[in-house]
Every structure is written in C-alpha cells, then in structure tokens.
Amino acid sequence: MTGLRLLPVPAWAGVGDLLDALTATLDGGAALLPYAADARLPLVPDRASELPEDVGLVVATSGSTGATKLSMLTRVNLTASASATHEVLGGPGTWLLAMPAHHVAGTLVLVRSIVAGTTPEVLDLARGFTVEGFVAATQQLATRQLATRQGGCRYTALVPTQLTRLLDSAAGCAALASYDAVLVGGAAAATATLAAARSAGIRVVRTYGTSETAGGCVYDGVAFPGTEVHIDNDHHVVVGGPTVALGYLGQPRETADAFTADADGTRWFRTDDLGRLDGRGRLVISGRADDLINTGGLKVAPGPVEDAIVRYVPGVRDAVVVGSRHPTWGQSVSAAVTLLDGAPRLTVRDLRSALRGILPDHSLPQRLAVLDVIPQRGPGKPDRRALVAAFDETLEADVGRTV
Predict the structure, then answer these.
(1) Angstrom distance (rounded) from CA 112 to CA 23
(2) Which residues contact 197 (CB under 8 A, 6 or more apart)?
(3) What does the pLDDT look like over 320-368, one tens digit per residue?
(4) How far apart are CA 366 and CA 327, in angstroms?
(5) Quick one: residue 333, left, alpha or beta (phi over 0 = left, psi -120 to 50 = alpha)?
(6) Taking CA atoms, which of 93, 155, 225, 349 is between 20 and 30 Å from 106?
(7) 1 Cβ contact partners less than 8 Å away, ≥ 6 residues apart
(8) What is the rounded distance in angstroms from the CA atom of residue 247 to the CA atom of residue 126?
(9) Strand (E) positions, 289-329?
(10) Which of 124, 74, 81, 134 is nearest to 100 (CA)?
(11) Model confidence band, residue 401 (pLDDT cutoffs 50, 70, 90)
(12) Whole-angstrom Cα distance, residue 73 to residue 213?
C-alpha cells in the first residue's frame, strides 16, 4: 500500500530495525505498520486509500470485540504520549523494553526512548519472558548507564502476569525496585499484586489506554495533561485529547461510530470499556461492554467479581470471569482461576461460600475451572473467548442457582 511500510518484528533481532524505522518516521518518514515476524502479514483493507500525511504509525487493535482494526496514529499522537508519560513520571529516562515491540505498549516504549534521546535496553523474548532474563537485562541497563554516564530516571513497562512472576522472586523484586517507575497495563492487575509490589518498595503505576489512544493515557486513574475523560450515558469511557487516533485505516463506518471531533479540533474516542469516575475524579474501569454477563435478565460486570475472588478467596492468584452458555438463564457466571503454590483444592461451593454477602447472589459464580495458566490473546490480556468456548464445550456446572 502506498505510504505505508509493513515491518516484520522478530522477538529480538528486529527491534533495532524498528527503532531505526520509528526514528525516521518521527522525522517525517514513511508510516509504519509493525507486526510479529512469525504471524501472518496484516490484512490491509482493500478500500484503504493513501494514508493521511501526518500518520506515523498504524497499529492493530487486540480484536477483543471481533475483527482486528488498524488504528492510525499521527506523529503528534506519538510524541504527545511520550512527552506526557515523562512529565507524569518525573522526567525523561532510559527504558527497558520487556514486551513484544510490535504491540502498541512495546512500540511506545521505543517512541519514548527516541523522544527522550536515550537508548533502550531490550529484553530478549525469543524464548519467552523469564525472571532471570529480566534481572539480567536490568543489570545490563544499570551497567550501561554507569559506563556512559547516561543518568536520569529508569523505567520499564509490564503486563500483570510479568509483574506477578517477578514478585515471586527475591531477585525479581530487587530488579523491580531499581526502577523509578514500573508501568503496569494491558489488563487489570489484582489489588493484592499491586499491594505486594508497593510493600516491596516498587513504584507501580497502573495504566489505562488503548491502541486508539496511543497506549496508556490515564495513569493511576488520572488522565494525562491535556487529556480528558468522561463517562457517557451508557457508562462507556470516552477519551479526548492529543493522543486520540485519526481513526481506523480503510474503515470509515467504524471510524464514524467510534471517533468524533470538536469544533476546536479535539478528537474523542468512545471506548468499549465501562467505567465511572470516583469521588476524587479518578477513572475506575469495571469491564468491557461486550464482556457483560446476562444471567436470568440480570447484568453482571466481570471486573468486580474478579476483584472479589482475588481479594477474598484464600489461595487464588488470578481470576477471570466470563459468561458461559446456560439453557435456562442465558448465561452462567463462570470463573477461571489459578492458585498460589500450596493452596488447598478449591470447589465452586468454596468459592460461593467465600463470596456470599460480599457480592450480590446473582453475581456469585456458578461454574469454576482451576487452571495452571490463564490463556492469553495478547500481552497480559486474558483470552475470554477461549475460556467461554472451554466452559461451553467441556465443563459441567458444579452448582445450580439453588445452592
């Protein structure tokens, strides 16, 4: 396609190429569409015409609500996001890239490095994420900073599963504590995990954002400088400001449905996330509109149920709640959990008993799967569709509504 460079990104070797290409893009060069080298070539819509001149990056959405879309981010979007990140965190710094570079969160780590004028350290993910690899990369970053007298802050960005694994290791905790800030996003992190990190002296910053907002644009519930967040009448989170994308490549109808612009040029994006602003005006995400569970005509948001499970059910490390098929009620509230090492066996009766009085009765899980690992569909994002399919196809309800 004219004006768009598709760039395959291996887990390790291609990061240098992407960094060079991003540098050229921010200087006015061709727009980039990075993708995993071991994945299919991205499908560029046939109806797509030449890109608008100011587009610098085209990034695939995670496809959580259906077909993947290609968000068009301008150079202004990218530099505004990087500059705001450093302003909020405490100044420019050197970054460790610890997630796939072709995902928006990884790409933005490289953009921040370019804007800050620093050289990022890159964790080799060819064989997956490991605690040992993260610790070694952190040590390499510190050594290089010392050798080059490249001072300033030190940052990294993780997904919740990476944070959890590092917290289970003394060496991992020590490495995390050496950073001035550790961004955590991509999915909701358990309250207990965040508390454990902070008690270990680790500055964890919860991030919220999407591919359409150039990644995280709300940190610890507070929007970036120049960014606004409001909640519409349907409880959808709406984001406006300099990081909001132009729209979706080659999809004018979908763009019109999700994006608007004020008379002054401010762009707004209506997300599929549901949320509210608390008493301090901080954003609280309750889940996604398409994840709502309809059980017997009553709506259940998975987020509060997941949080309650991790908080109040002994031995649970992580939880994902989905709506699986039920012949009478439409959907059952179904929980997939992982357990801490040495945790006792957990049954759905135990689960419901621990949560009774904490959650409304209709929100109590009716089905339970205890897994070794929660399936993922992207960096840190649980594969809810895979879990729904597993419940629908193979799992029997352990308890009925009469329990």
Answers:
(1) 11
(2) 163, 167, 176, 182, 204
(3) 999 999 888 889 999 999 998 889 999 999 999 999 999 999 999 999 9
(4) 13
(5) beta
(6) 225
(7) 44, 48, 50, 51
(8) 32
(9) 293-295, 298-300, 316-326
(10) 124
(11) very low
(12) 8
Which band of pLDDT confidence, cut at 50, 70 and 90, is reported for residue 66? low
Residue 157 pLDDT > 80, yes or no?
A: yes
Contact assessment for residue 397 and residue 349, using Cβ atoms and an 8 Å cutoff: no
Lowest mean pLDDT among 3-17, 202-216, 227-241, 353-367: 3-17
What ranges make up the beta strands (E) of 264-371? 267-277, 283-288, 293-295, 298-300, 316-326, 330-339, 367-370
Rounded Cα distance, 349 and 399, in Å: 7
Token pair 């449905």: residue: 257
Among all chains, which residue has been given the structure tokens 């994420």?
A: 129
Residues paired with residue 331 on neighbouring β-strands, in sequence order: 325
Q: What does the alpha-carbon distance between residue 175 and residue 155 come to, in Å, rounded to a whole number?
A: 11
What is the C-alpha separation between 301 and 380, in angstroms, rounded?
Answer: 20
DSSP 8-state code for residue 241: S
At residue 403 the predicted structure's pLDDT band, cuts being 50, 70 and 90, is very low
- Per-residue pLDDT reduced to its tens digit, 172-188: 999 999 999 999 998 88
Query: Please, how many CA atoms are within 13 Å of residue 46, restricted to the half-sphere of its CB?
Result: 0
